[in-house]
Amino acid sequence: MKRWLQKLGEKMQAWMYGRYGYDELSQFLSIVALACIFISMFVPLLNPIALILLIWSMFRGFSRNLEKRQKEREVYLKYTGKVKQSFKRRKNMWRERKTHRYFKCPGCRRWLRVPKGKGQIEITCPVCKGKITRKT
Ligand SMILES: [Zn+2]
Question: Global pTM?
């Protein structure tokens, strides 16, 4: 039995050689597919969507076109990175709400953090050097 399992493992390894495998995007697709399966207990329309997502995830894993899969992954990471960054910033804003205030620079849309309780101050953006006057 152990020998048989070992042989199976070797065969799987040989079969997966040169194929893309599992990455963050595949993981995300699988999770969304599982969520769809769960929700489809109440909304039957989501079952085909779950199937499509699972097939897509498997297709990516078994794909031999590594370059294309890596590009898909980069696009995925680029967008999720923005979302993650936004959540992180909100979390920081909440944690520092008693000591700091945040303002968005009207010139470059970048967030500026200033200490709270300093009255009316002029804030200079470190990126575009634009100035704004705000009460802190
Ligand atoms: Zn700026």
Answer: 0.64
